[in-house]
Design brief:
By secondary structure, this protein is an alpha+beta fold. 22% of the residues lie in helices and 29% in strands. The strands form 11 sheets. An 8-stranded mixed beta sheet has the order 25-36-38-37-39-42-40-41, sandwiched between helices. The protein has an 8-stranded mixed beta sheet with strand order 27-26-35-29-32-33-34-28, with helices on both faces.
């Protein structure tokens, strides 16, 4: 009985295993069917067939097949999809392979040994061998008589394109039909070989194959590659600019996919798969590639795909045992033809399927970024300024994996590791004897909610923290009790003409608790929407409530986020909380209203809608307690030193932080506000531009060290988005003498250039900037805007305030700025590359000891370029970081500006403006927006602990 029970148990286990295997097989089969639909065998006749390639119109397919009675080797045929007719193109004797249609032309190309005097003899020997019943492992012979030929599509007018001894094959036409790329080992037969090379040639002639390119008529043959191992199977990219191919390792045990420019430059490895990866082919969109690899076993080749830069992990497409390879797309990308052994007899034939491009792109989007065999990212880059390298670096810096690079986050630490590893690989050294590349600074990282010190109560009913309400990050800590007043959207809007919107015009909220709707009214016309959007921030609503005497403000939110807040906004000077719509509807029920009904009544932003504001006849009690946490993050600072110990410095930098999950300053709306804000342009583009410059000048130092006449210091700043905190922290305690810094060059948003327009900002900071930029731009040809104002909302300002000439590169603002949509797919890499090349011309000019830069104090009014603007200026440079202390500290003042005339000084803390409290940067910006040019007003500052009241006259911003 025990034995029988054991047998039942084993049977049950076996059944479970078999069922699991069956389910897995079904799952993989289903996955293949999602890529490939309506799969069918295309060619049946002949012993074998393979390598099918489409004509330009998709009507014809040229392929190789063993189907001639007196010739056991491949010959070339053309299939007509409309009629089903198949005709032979090649002469019929000898061996042939690798045929291709000439697009934008009437010719076809193939490789053939039909001119071999022993061709017929070799055919007979092969036929006799097969008739004997003996078998040998399939292998390809690299015939020294194999040459490339072209002919008409009917096989007439054959023209020999290559003639030298050696294997010439695997050719394909460029999209315009003017060029042919191919693989050849002819060089090994036309030079003196070493003993080792002779031995290698006897064993493996393919080892010596490299890529060549020639004109379609066979003229002007030029070598593209010259690396150990077999380079072959090349095809042009859809735009004709690059060539994709596979390269075998020196021992022949592995192969990977590479691309190269048609002039032989910018070679890039796309796969690192640890197996035989070969036969790559571009999708006609140019967005991704397919190839074959035996990752699942030596004889089991499957088709894989990845992005065109090879940044993502390979995605498996086929899941059928045996051979699946040589995949090729139809010209419109709707079909895939490939060679497969999934036949009844196991011999390879051509198959065809409908290709699911939409599903392929979905899988590609989900695929993680690939790592190299050591498990780390690629840190080794060439000195060449390359769109491919810019793309690779930015695809990581702005990937979901680094989570938007919020200051102090896990994501920015990943970005930091990536950048510092590249710097180490390039041989950079720390600046001024610092221990490493990281320079630490403090910032407010988090606002913690003290759970047992936060409460909300109406009458006898208490509400739940993190479900019904939550203190805002900007709240004061304290307690308030009073009647609840509904104040609509809690806004005060004035267009300076006839339109005025004041949520408090008919309300008395002194010592009361104000409840307001989040956001702005819907249904606004375009003009009103601009007015309202400028005041959409909760900080503005808190300020208005405080100015009207309210004790506290409740902002109605669709949902209440739990946990702590990372939004660093300073303190509001009022108790502030988010309130759920459910609780708000309970309160509004006393007036037979709902959030939805009031949103409807207050739509369009018409002042008549303000009739629907009221006291609720309910009294609430609210207590808030938050703690602002000081944390540390790191700037990255590294140097390529000059060999001259007395050399001056040139600083080159960009900020590498962004908004994370929209924790601060996001312009995204609703749920989108909490998505990852990858910041590809802002400022992944500037970051990778600086890294590309590092590689360029590290290469220059290795090759021509005498050209590095200055110490080149490369800086990546954090906490720029929180108010230039990182760069200001560093520049305020500059570790080298200010007078030895020749210039600071900055990059902030250089990835979305439109219409060839590039803005160079801050050029008024030195006499010579304009002439330098003008001269170097003649070479590159941008449509330049030369801005003189060096007081910029970017890190250049931190250096200018220290008496250092600055220049900042900027390609312009766009609708995706500070939203979750700022992604890599929208970057203009070709123009980014041009910006970096332009930068090398400028920096090279600065490296000339005779090229002076003369610092200037700029006494002009601010420009409206850059990231946002107001109609007036005070000439202050505020520190944007939040603090527990009320007020806004200023870093400095503009020479000749209103602040200097009013005798404001650097490090003053503004606590009142226009007779209104200034608790934080939101208060300051919103009051600034209310000021009129040339109308004097009071400004109160704290200076060394004492309050001073000054008079300031705002100036119009030009």
């Amino acid at each position: 009985m025990i034995k029988q029970d054991k047998m039942k148990k084993y049977a049950s286990i076996l059944f479970t295993i078999l069922l699991t295997l069956s389910l897995l097989a079904q799952e993989t089969e289903n996955l293949e069917n999602k890529f490939l639909k309506n799969t069918r065998q295309l060619i049946y006749e002949g012993n074998r067939s393979g390598e099918g390639y489409f004509s330009e119109d998709g009507r014809y397919l040229i392929f190789q097949s063993e189907r001639e009675a007196d010739n056991p080797f491949y010959q070339i045929y053309i299939l007509d999809f409309e009629t089903g007719d198949i005709n032979r193109v090649s002469p019929g004797h000898g061996k042939t392979t690798c045929a291709y249609f000439q697009w934008n032309g009437d010719r076809v190309m193939y490789s053939s040994s039909h001119l071999d005097p022993d061709a017929l003899k070799k055919q007979k020997e092969e036929l006799d061998f097969r008739a004997s019943g003996k078998k040998k492992r399939y292998s390809w012979d690299y015939e020294t008589t194999m040459d490339i030929f072209s002919s008409n599509r009917d096989g007439s007018e054959i023209k020999q394109l290559t003639e030298a001894k050696g294997y010439d094959a695997e050719g394909s036409y460029s999209p315009d039909g003017k060029l042919i790329v191919y693989s050849t080992n002819k060089d090994v037969y036309n030079r003196k070989l070493t003993k080792e090379e002779k031995q290698k040639l006897e064993v493996d002639a393919s080892y010596f194959c490299d890529l060549f390119i020639m004109n379609a008529d066979g003229s002007d043959k030029r070598q593209l590659t010259n690396a150990p191992g077999y380079d072959g199977g090349p095809f042009f990219s859809p735009d004709g600019e690059r060539i994709i191919f596979r390269r075998f390792s020196e021992d022949g045990h592995a192969a990977d996919v590479y691309t190269i420019n048609i002039d032989g430059t910018e070679e890039k490895r796309l796969t690192d798969f640890g197996c035989l990866s070969w036969a790559p082919y571009y999708h006609p969109s140019g967005d991704y590639i397919v190839w074959a690899a035996n990752k699942e076993g030596y004889a089991n080749f499957e088709i894989y795909m990845t992005d065109v830069e090879g940044l993502k992990e390979p995605i498996r497409v086929t899941f059928t045992d045996g051979f699946d390879g040589l995949p090729v797309f139809s010209p419109d990308g709707s079909k895939l033809v490939w060679t497969s052994s999934r036949t009844g007899d196991g011999k390879a034939q051509l198959f065809i399927s409908s290709w699911n491009d939409e599903f392929a792109r979905e899988e590609l989007a989900k695929s993680p970024y690939r790592t190299n065999p050591s498990g780390s990212l690629n840190y080794n880059f060439s000195p060449e300024i390359s769109t491919l390298e810019l793309t690779e670096k930015l695809s990581y810096i702005a990937s979901d994996e680094v989570e938007g690079r919020m200051t102090g986050s896990k994501g920015i630490k990943l970005a930091n590791d990536y950048i510092t590893n590249i710097f180490k690989d390039q041989g950079l050294v720390p600046l001024a004897g610092h221990a490493d590349f990281n320079w630490e600074f403090d910032f407010i990282s988090e606002v913690k909610v003290i759970d047992d010190k936060n409460a909300f109560q109406i009458g006898d009913k208490s509400y739940e923290l993190n479900k019904d309400f939550n203190p805002l990050a900007s709240t004061e800590s304290g307690m308030a009790e009073g009647p609840i007043v509904f104040a609509g959207y809690g806004m005060k809007i004035n267009d300076g003409k006839d339109y005025e919107y004041d949520s408090y015009a008919s309300l008395d909220v002194k010592d009361k608790i104000v409840m307001v709707l989040d956001g702005i009214p819907y249904g606004l016309d375009e003009e009103k929407e601009k007015l309202f959007e400028r005041n959409i921030a909760s900080g503005y609503k808190q300020m208005i409530a405080r100015q009207n005497g309210a004790k506290a403000i409740l902002i109605i939110k669709p949902r209440i986020s739990s946990g702590h807040s990372h939004e660093v906004v300073g303190t509001s000077g009022i108790i502030s909380a988010a309130l759920s719509e459910n609780v708000a509807n309970e309160i509004l029920l006393v007036k037979n209203e709902t959030v939805e009904s009031l949103q409807e009544k207050l739509k369009d932003g018409e002042p008549k809608g303000l009739d629907h504001l009221f006291e609720t006849d309910l009294t609430a009690k609210i207590e808030t307690k938050v703690e602002r946490v000081i944390a540390q993050d790191n700037n990255i600072v590294a140097m390529i030193p000059s060999d001259n110990p007395e050399a001056n410095y040139i600083f080159i930098g960009a900020h590498y932080d962004h908004l994370g999950f929209g924790e601060t300053n996001s312009r995204s709306m609703g749920e989108d506000k909490h998505k990852i804000h990858n910041g590809a342009d802002d400022n992944g583009s500037g970051t990778v531009s600086v890294v590309e410059l590092v590689e360029f000048y590290a290469g220059l130092k290795r090759e021509n060290p005498e050209k590095i006449t200055h110490n080149l210091v490369f800086c990546l700043w954090s906490a720029e988005e929180l108010g230039l905190i990182g760069s200001n922290s560093f520049a305020s305690k500059l570790p080298v003498p200010n007078e030895k810094v020749k210039a600071y060059i900055n990059y902030d948003m250089v990835g979305r250039m439109q219409n060839n327009k590039l803005e160079l900002q801050g050029l008024g900071s030195a006499e010579e900037w304009k002439s330098i930029m003008e001269k170097k731009n003649i070479v590159v040809g941008f449509d330049l805007t030369l801005g003189t104002d060096p007081y910029l909302p970017t890190d250049a300002t931190s250096f200018y305030l220290k008496g250092i000439p600055v220049a900042s590169f900027f390609s312009g603002i766009h609708m995706d700025y500070h939203t979750f949509k700022d992604d890599v797919e929208l970057i203009n890499f070709e123009d980014m590359q041009r910006v970096v090349k332009f930068s090398t011309l400028v920096i090279n000019e600065l490296l000339k000891p005779e090229q002076a830069l003369t610092y200037k104090e700029v006494k002009v009014k601010a420009n409206k370029g850059g990231k946002g603007a107001f109609s007036v200026t005070l000439g202050t440079i505020p520190a944007y970081a939040g603090s527990d202390d009320p007020g806004v500290q200023i870093q400095g003042v503009r020479p000749g500006g209103p602040a200097e005339k009013a005798q404001l000084l650097a490090n003053d803390i503004i606590i009142s403006l226009n007779n209104k409290e200034v608790n934080n940067i939101y208060d300051f910006m919103n009051i600034l927006g209310e000021l009129k040019p040339d109308v004097e007003t009071d400004i109160v500052v704290k200076r060394n602990g004492e309050e001073k009241t000054l008079t300031i006259i705002p100036e119009e911003k030009k």
